[in-house]
Specification:
This protein is α+β, with helices and mostly antiparallel strands. Helix content is about 35%, strand content about 25%. It has 24 helices and 28 strands. Strands 1, 2, 3, 4, 5, 6 and 7 form a seven-stranded mixed beta sheet that branches. It is elongated and about 100 Å long.
Length: about 750
């Protein structure tokens, strides 16, 4: 299961979803095309789990006009238990969404691999399982997704038989969906997945059944049987005695919900662990006043058998609980629900990242049709982000005085959530807010509380009447607190980085100087993975009418210290270049400066002195990536100046100088390592690939060439480190032009 829930777990209800079967779903006759498709999918899923030996299976279909997938059928667990995974945002970084977007299967051989490749899913499904997720294809179009779980003891790879069974099931499901579409009655996902019951087992003869029941009564331990929803379907007299309560109270109930001393999420989680992993598990529980019971759980495709024994001594490390027992609302299902939704905030760095995660990933899964995040700012509300509300509603929230008597302001002032199952109540009390309240049928106003104080409000709107049961209210309020903490953290990050980026912007040249006989273009690109400010820098210095100097470098680290040191190195290089020092001497002096500063940060640097009159250049390198030279005929080569030590290591380091030809029309490319470093790719190969891109580019200008090189690196995996790029070209007579803006 790899998605997120549309509702928090509900209180005990009708368990019929567990006992539903294919015949009931489709009926014998008079079925519509969509009903036939649904029945066919249920049959295909049941057959697929049997053919592959998987114990849990699910089918997801996309919801029309929504960026979400919904589970339509599940095998091996009840619809209630599957609910936290029943809705998957299409943008979510989880296996089901990945397969739906890319149309390729995903195989995860263990929970370790699941947690490594999909941390959010590993957090929300913390069980020892192997997972296979495959697309349902109709031609090249993805019509749905099939998910299967096996115990973690499954071999590392799928067998050919399993793979073929998965492929064939995908074909069958695709045919069912296509047939329903052609009949004009396409299958639409419902609010709840259909729980496909396991194949019926042969009934025991009555005498044997009585004998089996009698067998359990002869043991000193208690025995009970749980169905796939955790409800007790059988318990021995000894089990009734050990658990306490009456037989009628226990049958059909989940014992961790009806026995006050068993209200602990650990007990339900042990059942879920057994159910999802299909491996035995056990836990201990204290029955007041001083009886310790041991529960051993053994699963199969129909449910879980439990053996209950009395422990002679308290288990090692056990401490009787001193506070009140946990409430049923603190169930494992609710905790998983919150983990699912809050995990989408884990990758958010800045405030915009948080608002995007809430509107794009959390809002669809909550089944809310509108959402607004508002915060207090100088006595008024300020909208951070919205989704689903029309523009008039956004104008209503933005700039609203904190003295107004409206729900969003009250929630912000009191920290107490407000729920309105019927928006008519809001319209009558606040007719001036009709632009908002008339848009939706129900509203929830949730306080955003960080560090113990309200900082804003999360407004949810529902297009249909929404009852907001107690457990959902609790879960939504807890989720809002997680959003608030993410916003507070992101706000601090943004503030810090505004200062840092302001410093870096002040230290990098806003414009490259105009140098007669030289075209230039520069680009700076920050890292795309939430890193702090970097120490990459570049500069172009006009020395006289026919001579110029270019420098590029990278200070170790990603913080304000790195940016400040970058400014000092750039200033030192600029000063020594103006003094007429040669490339090797410029780097040697900059190196001594860094050693004297004792900053414990190092820097790479490449310095080039350009002799435009004679068409040549002198280069010196301090451990910097080698420059590239594209000749006038577009042949590109990787230059190889002797790599001196990084700046700041050895005070007496020497930096040899290399001379190269730089004729009109040639392009010299200087860059930092962020342009070429890729995880798992040899650095030399990456540099050679950049040289090939430089040679092949047919850009009409140096600026366009710079954009082409930057676009290439972004399209081949993004930027994991800062990138600086400086291109220099003595233009051919027909193409001479002014210097370019960076």
């Amino acid at each position: 299961m790899t998605g997120e829930s549309s509702h928090p777990p509900e209180p005990p209800g009708d368990p019929r979803g567990v006992r539903g079967d294919v015949e009931a779903a489709g009926g014998a006759s008079g079925r519509t095309a969509s009903q036939r498709a649904a029945a066919g999918i249920h049959q295909a899923l049941s057959q697929l789990t049997a053919d592959t030996g998987s114990h849990v299976g699910a089918v997801y279909l996309p919801v029309p006009d929504e960026q979400v997938l919904r589970m339509v059928a599940v095998f091996g667990v009840s619809a209630r238990i599957a609910r936290p995974w029943a809705r998957v945002a299409m943008a979510a970084p989880v296996p089901v969404a990945d397969v739906a977007r890319q149309g390729r299967p995903v195989w995860l051989r263990s929970h370790d691999e699941l947690a490594r490749r999909y941390p959010r899913t590993g957090l929300a499904l913390p069980y020892q399982v192997a997972m296979g997720v495959s697309p349902v294809l109709s031609g090249d179009a993805v019509k749905g997704v099939v998910l299967l779980l096996w115990p973690g003891t499954h071999p590392p790879e799928l067998s050919p038989r399993e793979s073929e069974a998965i492929t064939e099931a995908g074909r069958r499901i695709s045919r069912f969906l296509d047939q329903a579409e052609k009949a004009g009655d396409p299958l639409r996902p419902g609010d709840e997945p259909h729980a496909v019951a396991p194949p019926p087992s042969d009934p025991w003869p009555e005498a044997e059944a009585r004998s089996g029941a009698g067998l359990t009564e002869r043991f000193q331990e208690g025995h009970l049987s749980l169905d796939l929803d955790g409800r007790i379907t059988f318990l021995s007299n000894r089990a009734v005695e050990l658990l306490g309560g009456g037989r009628g109270e226990l049958l059909g109930a989940r014992f961790w919900e009806v026995l006050p001393w068993a209200h602990d999420p650990v007990h339900e989680n042990c059942f879920l662990e057994t159910l999802f992993s299909r491996l035995p598990a056990s836990f201990n529980a204290l029955k007041p006043p001083d009886t310790w019971l041991s529960f051993a759980l053994h699963p199969d495709i129909t449910g879980v058998s439990v053996r209950v024994t009395v422990l002679d001594h308290p288990p090692a490390g056990s401490e009787p609980a001193t506070g009140p027992p946990a409430t049923p609302e603190a169930s494992a299902g609710t905790l998983f629900y919150l983990m699912h939704l809050s995990s989408s905030l884990s990758d958010a760095v800045g405030v915009k990242d948080v608002t995007d995660a809430v509107t794009e990933q959390i809002m669809p899964v909550l089944n809310a049709q509108a959402l607004a995040l508002v915060v207090a700012d100088n006595g008024r509300l300020r909208v951070l982000g919205t989704g689903g509300f029309r523009r008039a509603a956004q104008r209503h929230f933005d700039g609203l005085s904190l003295s107004s008597n409206v729900p969003s302001i009250r929630v912000l002032a009191t920290g107490v959530p407000e729920f309105f199952p019927d928006s008519g109540e809001l319209l009558r009390a606040h007719p001036q807010g009709a632009s908002v309240y008339a848009q939706q049928a129900s509203f929830a106003y949730l306080p955003l509380i960080a560090a113990g104080r309200p900082i804003g409000c999360c407004v949810l709107g529902y297009s249909e009447t929404h009852a907001f049961p107690a457990d959902e209210r609790a879960a939504l309020t807890a989720l809002a607190a997680m959003i608030a903490q993410a916003l507070e953290r992101a706000s601090l990050y943004d503030t810090k980085n505004q200062v840092a980026y302001g410093l870096q912007a002040a230290l990098l040249p806003r414009l490259l100087p105009a140098v007669p006989g030289l075209d230039s273009a520069a680009r700076y690109l920050p890292a795309s993975q939430g890193m702090d400010i970097g120490g990459d820098f570049y500069d172009l210095v006009r020395l006289d009418e026919t001579t110029a100097a270019a420098v590029i470098g990278d200070v170790q680290g990603h913080n304000v210290n790195a940016a400040a040191l970058m400014g000092q190195v750039r200033t030192a290089v600029h000063t020594h270049a103006d003094s007429g020092a040669g490339p090797g001497e410029v780097l040697a002096r900059a190196n001594r400066l860094l050693v004297d500063l004792q900053s414990q940060l190092f820097a790479s640097c490449l310095y080039v002195q350009l002799d435009l009159r004679n068409g040549k250049a002198l280069l010196a390198s301090a451990g910097h990536p080698p420059p590239l030279l594209r000749h006038p005929d577009h042949r590109a080569e990787v230059l190889d100046p002797p790599p001196g030590l990084l700046l700041g290591i050895e005070p007496d380091a020497d930096y040899p100088t290399t001379e190269i030809a730089l004729p009109p029309g040639a392009v010299l490319a200087l860059y930092t390592d962020g342009l070429v470093e890729r995880p798992g790719v040899d650095l030399g190969e990456s540099i050679a690939d950049l040289a090939r891109q430089l040679a092949a580019a047919q850009a009409p200008s140096l600026d366009a060439l710079a954009d082409t090189l930057i676009d290439h690196v972004q399209q081949t995996g993004g930027v994991s480190d800062d990138v600086a790029l400086l291109l220099l070209r003595p233009p051919a007579p027909a193409t001479r032009g002014p210097a370019r803006r960076p």
